[in-house]
Specification:
Order of helices and strands: EEEEEHEHEHEEHEEHHEEHHHHHHHH
Number of helices: 14
CATH topology of the largest domain: Spore Coat Polysaccharide Biosynthesis Protein SpsA, Chain A
Distance between the termini: 40 Å
Helix content: 55-70%
Oligomer: single chain
Largest sheet: 7 strands, mixed
Strand order of the largest sheet: 7-6-1-8-11-10-12
């Protein structure tokens, strides 16, 4: 285990860069969540100026059960650290992926994440004529304590960088093709807004089924931007999705299949937006939960439709339902990351809704089964290769 350290000294437009809006939260909240996801047992923040916005951000992190402490002075930080505790430090305004943080954290201190041959005019701090610091360093508490003792009026982040380099730190280089999702330096509001846009664009053009990418681009992106602009509370989406899902599945079971499938589709779309919002905020755990819920709604919609339509449908109808469920349940894990055209929750419920509109529920189930069977067959064949 290691401790996380976030520097919050730089300002932009009268506010700390650490408190600028970013990814549905603030820069420092994203940094802290990433450190904890990478394995930090606790996180320290050292600030040049303590502002109400910084206190509010730290309180929000604390409410999420993240062990975070504000060190108002370098000496206070030194006192709080255990002598043998490794420290993973993240530079002011630097947002790095969990994978990069984990890689550095598993090294032996001291380590510097570096950029070779950075472009002219970069805001990254220079280590030597060849390399710039990419904003992540693994150090031991003893070096930090020694640096604080001799700090005087010097800046802690820059001084600690120099001392770490002088201590013979191993340099690990950031990949030249690293995306905004892997590494981002925020120095002002424009950088934060650009980072938001790049992150959302990467999600819309990233991995996943085609339907998920279309939902991200056409529904989630504008809706999330509207919610953030109007400061709509995140749980509003969750409440709406829960009501729509419960009402839809219950309605379909009771025989109101078309409105029921319509509400179930609305629930799946809202859960997809919740998932994208979580990914946009670098909250992979919450995104995974949203994905499981969407899968659950899609799978439950099939027997709900069957109960509402096939009350006396005979063994053929129930065989079709069981086959469809089996293909989706078996295939979901196999083809989720390999086929962009594989059936996603929105695809499944969308087909069932369209079929119910046309009064052809059996055709809808058959189409879902054929879609899942084709995707599973292709995925298995690719695995064999």
């Amino acid at each position: 285990m290691f401790a996380g350290l976030i520097f919050a000294r730089d300002e932009a437009d009268g506010a700390l860069v650490a408190t600028l809006p970013f990814a549905g939260a603030t820069v420092i909240e994203v940094q802290a969540r990433r450190l904890v996801a990478a394995g930090a047992s606790r996180v320290f923040v050292t600030a040049g100026r303590v502002t109400p916005a910084l206190i509010a951000a730290i309180d929000r992190l604390g409410s999420r059960r993240i062990a975070i402490e504000l060190a108002r002075r370098p000496a206070e930080l030194s006192e709080k650290l255990r002598p043998d505790e490794p420290v993973l430090a993240v530079g002011d305004g630097v947002v790095v992926s969990e994978a990069v943080l984990r890689t550095i954290a598993h090294e032996s201190a001291p380590v510097l994440l570096s950029v070779a041959q950075a472009p002219a005019g970069t805001a990254l701090e220079r280590i030597d004529p060849q390399d710039h610091w990419a904003g992540v360093a693994l150090i031991d508490a003893a070096l930090l304590k020694e640096t604080v003792t001799t700090l005087g009026d010097w800046d802690l982040q820059s001084t600690l960088l120099r001392r770490t380099a002088q201590a013979g730190a191993v340099r690990r280089y950031l990949s030249p093709d690293a995306s905004a999702a892997d590494h981002l330096l925020i120095a002002g509001r424009e950088d934060a807004a650009r980072g938001d846009a790049l992150r959302m664009a990467a999600l819309a053009d990233g991995e996943g089924q085609m339907s998920e990418r279309l939902i991200t681009a056409w529904i989630a992106r504008p809706l999330i931007e509207m919610m953030e602009a109007r400061k709509v509370v995140p749980w509003a989406l969750e409440v709406a999705a829960g009501i729509a899902g419960f009402a839809g599945l219950a309605s379909a079971t009771l025989g109101w299949v078309t409105p029921g499938m319509g509400l179930a589709l609305l629930a799946v779309l809202l859960v997809a937006v919740i998932r994208v919002r979580a990914l946009h905020g670098f909250d992979e755990a919450r995104a995974a939960i949203a994905g499981w819920i969407a899968d659950g709604v899609a799978l439950t919609a099939i027997p709900a439709l069957a109960l509402g339509v096939f009350a006396s449908g005979g063994p053929t109808s129930y065989t079709l339902v069981a086959t469809t469920l089996a293909l989706l349940a078996i295939g979901r894990r196999a083809f989720a990351e390999r086929l962009r055209w594989a059936p996603a929750p929105a695809t499944v419920v969308g087909i069932l809704f369209a079929a119910s509109l046309l009064a052809m529920p059996r055709v809808g189930l058959a189409l879902v089964a054929i879609h899942a069977a084709a995707a599973l067959a292709v995925a298995v064949e690719r695995l064999r290769r």
